[in-house]
Specification:
By secondary structure, the protein is α+β, with helices and mostly antiparallel strands. It has helices at residues 2-19, 37-49, 64-73, 93-108, 143-148, 163-168, 177-185, and strands at 30-32, 53-58, 79-86, 112-117, 129-132, 137-140, 152-156, 171-172. The chain has seven helices and eight strands, in the order αβαβαβαβββαβαβα. An eight-stranded mixed beta sheet has the order 1-7-6-5-2-3-4-8. The longest helix is centred in the N-terminal third of the chain and has 18 residues, at 2-19.
Length: 186
């Protein structure tokens, strides 16, 4: 094993010399698993830190834990806008109120923040979750899956979901709360 690790490092070093590409900077996929509770969160934090300019986060079951991850990892020098898009399942008054506090704190850091909810049945057509930025896009499990340590992956992807389309037909969690609340009561 020692020899194989040594040899692999030699090969990577030679590839770097020949191509000029720093292979250590290429993001690798991260496996979420039950026995690595801390590392699971660390993988999400690393993904957030790799984002530049903006963060668009789609998770149909977004919870307060997502705010916690963002507040820990957002650097105002790198990110100036956050858009969170979710569904009705985890949405409630407490989440709305927590978001208002999060938004105010981000405003103090000069980061424009919006949180919208997809209220129609089109959300049933969407399974995956994404963390989208100017420079990178991650396909990731729900924040709850990461917290539970269920087997899943955080992967860099070139496939871009139609976030802007979903955003247009969603409702603002604060300004459209009365409409959202009606949907929640059904």
């Amino acid at each position: 094993e020692i020899f194989l690790d040594y040899r692999a490092n030699q090969i990577l070093s030679e590839l770097k010399n020949l191509t000029g590409i720093n292979l250590e900077s290429i993001p690798e996929d991260k496996l979420i698993r039950p026995e690595t509770a801390f590392s699971n969160k660390k993988f999400l934090w690393e993904a957030i830190r790799k984002c530049k300019d903006h963060i668009y986060w789609f998770d149909p079951y977004f919870t307060k834990n997502g705010f916690e991850a963002l507040i820990e990892e957002i650097k105002k020098e790198k990110v100036n806008e956050i858009r969170i898009l979710s569904g009705l399942k985890q949405t409630d008054y407490k989440l709305k109120e927590l978001y208002k506090k999060f938004k105010e704190e981000m405003k103090n850091k000069k980061i424009n923040t919006n949180f919208r909810i997809i209220t129609d049945n089109s959300i049933a057509d969407i399974h995956d979750r994404w963390l989208i930025s100017k420079n990178i896009c991650f396909n990731l499990p729900s924040i709850n899956t990461i917290d539970r340590g269920q087997f899943s992956e955080i992967k860099v992807t070139e496939n871009m979901p139609p976030f802007a389309e979903w955003w247009k037909k969603s409702k603002d969690i604060v300004n459209d709360w009365s409409e959202i609340e009606k949907k929640l009561q059904k």
